[in-house]
Amino acid sequence: MTEPAGLVNDEERADDRIERRHLQVIGVLLVASFVVILNETVMSIAIPVLQVELGVHPSVGQWLTTAFMLTMAVIIPLTGYLIQRIPTRTLFVLAMSLFTAGTLIAFAAPGFGVLLFARVVQASGTALMLPLLMTTIMTLVPPARRGAMMGNISIVIAVAPALGPTLSGFILDHFGWRWIFGFVAPIALVTLVLGARFVVSVSETTKAGVDILSIPLAVLGFGGLVYGLVSIGESAQDSATIPVVVPFLIGAVALSGFLGRQFRLQREDRALLDLRVFGYRQFSISVVAMLVGMATMMGTFIIVPYFAQSVIYLDPFETGLITLPGGLLMGLAGPIVGRVYDRRGPLVLVIPGSILVSAGVWMLTTVNTSTSFWWLLLSNMALCLGLSATFTPLMTSGLGSVAAHLYAHGSAVVGTFQQVAGAAGTALFVTVMTVVASRSGHPHDSPEAIAEGVRMVFLVAGILSFVLIAACAFVRKPANPVDHAHTASVGAPAQGI
């Protein structure tokens, strides 16, 4: 005997409800993540200013962004282990304390070296926050509502970097570079206090040990490859301290050792970064697409402001305004994209989204010394809207396809690869620009040379965008996970807080 349709729907709606205390946890984590990720791009506008005030070259100044993302790429592999071992509230307090301390150090930094150290401390906190947010959402949110909730996450991981240049441009014009951090510090402190009050643990903790050897292998592997990309640009200007091949070789050997060790350790459930998540086809496809999208986004958010200030001579605030409409557009589109995903699946979003990303990038291949503000603004809006339509479905489809006991590792893999892609994209774009500008026949720091380098950057990015479109064509919505019951069972607070 079948039950009335209305009763079934009521039960389904009851199953899809999220407890108020869990919504509070997610809300605090969203705010905290927005604040910490905002710092990934606030330096993009400030680098030309710091270049003058602190006496650093662009290839050195970019390390304020590259070191931030590289630190995240090194620490995020640890988060799968940490989330399983440390209660949610404790990990949140640790993350926000590190970020707040780094922000205060940056505010008081007397020179470039201390400022770079402060960015590394900030990044250590940021690295813990985003995987913690994604794992918490995958644990607490029923499958039918994950798309909409991931739409909110897209506001964090995409809008915050887009708004960073606008905020820093305004502050630079009116207060000076130190107040980029002075503005963020009190917000970080308030978020830390609120989190300590409202965040509760959402899953059980274990006593799993950590493989010590995996940590230096991850540091040398991911760090070596990214530093190798940076060294190419330094070598073009005869400022490389070591031969370019050395960091690439060290990175490749260490990364091979790291991956081999994880394959062996995951058989005993002791892997620092459990690679079994790549056994899920949709996860693998989504990660490939996110890598290309993240590299394109972070590289663009660094190169376009530099071009705007160095070639068409916009002031910092005008430069920041280039990213503002795109960021607002992403914020408005994120929740809508999430709801469309829940109802229609990813394909209707990721195909037009990836095509928009490609269109925005190819528009930038035409820039020159007479490019207008409005052309940069329009291309950025196309890029941001496209990223908004792709990131949410990719994250939801990818993480939703893995088993519940691998959520923490899936989040760690996504976070690690996103940050490596972002750091590599930034280093690659700056390297291409530097090399081409140095060989352009003009002085390497002249507007004509920089414009020629930027055109080549976006030609490379345009080719990469075809990879994004191809990967998105294979993205599908995973079936409702059979382990939803397991998800519900671990929703109660863990003991020990």
**CATH class group of the largest domain:** Mainly Alpha
Please bin the fraction of helical residues.
Answer: over 70%
Strand content: under 5%
Provide the CATH superfamily of the largest domain.
Answer: MFS general substrate transporter like domains
* Total number of beta strands: 0
The SSE order reads HHHHHHHHHHHHHHHHHHH
Query: Total number of helical segments?
Result: 19
Low-confidence stretches are: 1-14, 481-497
Terminal Cα separation, in Å?
A: 47 Å
**Coarse shape:** globular
- Provide the residue-averaged pLDDT: 79
Structural summary, described in words:
By secondary structure, this protein is mostly helical. It has three domains: 19-202, MFS general substrate transporter like domains (Growth Hormone, Chain: A), CATH 1.20.1250; 211-271; 277-480, Up-down Bundle (Growth Hormone, Chain: A), CATH 1.20.1250.20. It is built from 19 helices and no strands. The termini are far apart.
Summarize the structure in short.
The protein is an all-alpha fold and 497 residues long.
Question: Topology, please?
Answer:
Blueprint: H1 5-15, H2 20-38, H3 42-53, H4 58-61, H5 63-85, H6 88-108, H7 112-140, H8 146-174, H9 178-198, H10 214-236, H11 245-265, H12 281-310, H13 316-321, H14 324-344, H15 347-363, H16 373-400, H17 407-438, H18 447-472, H19 484-489
Helix pairs in contact: 2-7, 2-8, 2-9, 3-8, 3-12, 5-7, 5-10, 5-17, 6-7, 6-9, 7-8, 7-17, 8-14, 8-16, 10-11, 10-17, 12-16, 12-17, 12-18, 14-16, 15-16, 15-18, 17-18
GO molecular function: transmembrane transporter activity
Transmembrane segments: 25-50, 62-83, 90-117, 123-141, 153-172, 178-200, 212-230, 242-263, 283-308, 320-340, 347-367, 373-394, 406-436, 456-475
Family: Belongs to the major facilitator superfamily. EmrB family.
